[in-house]
Amino acid sequence: MTAEPVDGAAPLGETLLLDEDDAAAGADLKGKVREAWQEFARTVASVLPTLAPGTVLDVTLDPTASGTGDAVYEVRITVGESGELTATAVSNALLPDGYRLDRNAIGALVALGWSPPGVLDGSGDLFGLRLPASDANRLAIIVSRTLRDVYGAPHPAFLTYEANDAAGESVQVPALGAARLLAAGAADADTDEEAADRALAHLADDVAALPLADQVAAVVATLLKTTPDALSVDPDGDIGIRAGSAMVFVRIRDNPPLIDVFSPVLTEVEPTEQLYVKLSELTNRMPIGRLYCTNDTVWASVPVFGRDFQPTHLMLAVQVMTGLADELDDRLHGEFGGKRFFGEGDKPAIKGREDHGTGMYL
Q1: Are 222 and 231 in contact (CB under 8 A)?
Q2: Burial status of residue 303 (CB atoms within 10 A of its CB: 0-12, 13-18, 19 or more)
Q3: Any idea where the TY-Chap central domain is (predicted)?
Q4: Alpha carbon distance 89, 146 (integer Å)
Q5: Can you tell me the distance from the alpha carbon of 30 to that of 148, in angstroms, rounded to the nearest whole number?
């Protein structure tokens, strides 16, 4: 197959400009995140012309911070002998099930200017792109949009990068915005929690001056690998997160400032003494939060202080609640009946349950 010139690809157009009109945007969440991506693109554009021929620059969505597991979303830029810039981007051939790009994402890559895998000479199973050195700014924008809009990086703080020369030796390059430089030969890699904490801490610095609601939206969106605009928010302003057969809500209370991460674990359940005993036992075992029953609904709740807000505290609360709610609704439904939030075909409580002693619940 003959390689198709990149110059013949779909034109960038106005939609790929760096939103210059937004440079003076106020201190809102979207503006802060946008500024971080603009800074990332600007620094990439300024670094590329300084790299010697043969240098390879890898920019990766950190899988430990973003929770993508074995899926590695990466863009590689190689500086040619004559200064031309060749870039490759990960395709579905290298992505595991559950993390592959859908048709819309693939269309977005082509619209950005990427040639499909195998079209550009030497691209193999990767999307390819080749531009002259004078188009470093254009390439930087394409790379930024690819990582953000297609691969789903919520913020440049979730990116890592490294550069190596033609012999494979590490090359020191200036900081690429909020992205993190991988130290050459580093022996101590971040754990999943450390990487996530680091990325969240960086994001927290960007949004610290914003209203609490915007900070909470930023953290939840980061955990869900989406954007604040794409969160599911009900008419009461609660953010909804599906967790298997359960639903978890994140609600912000003003007085006192508090974030309540809660779930209606079961509804239409009979509030019996055995149920109260069970909930008390389970609450005593929980490291944080509580279980309780009001009227005919069993609730699980983990509060987070809104004053001196710490993103990692909310991250922990959401992670605990999503796992807890999905497990508890099944367990409690099997013993006490009622309805789970997404429990199609739920049945009443098991007959004869009242004949069991409390020992079975311990």
Answers
A1: no
A2: middle
A3: 212-343
A4: 8
A5: 13
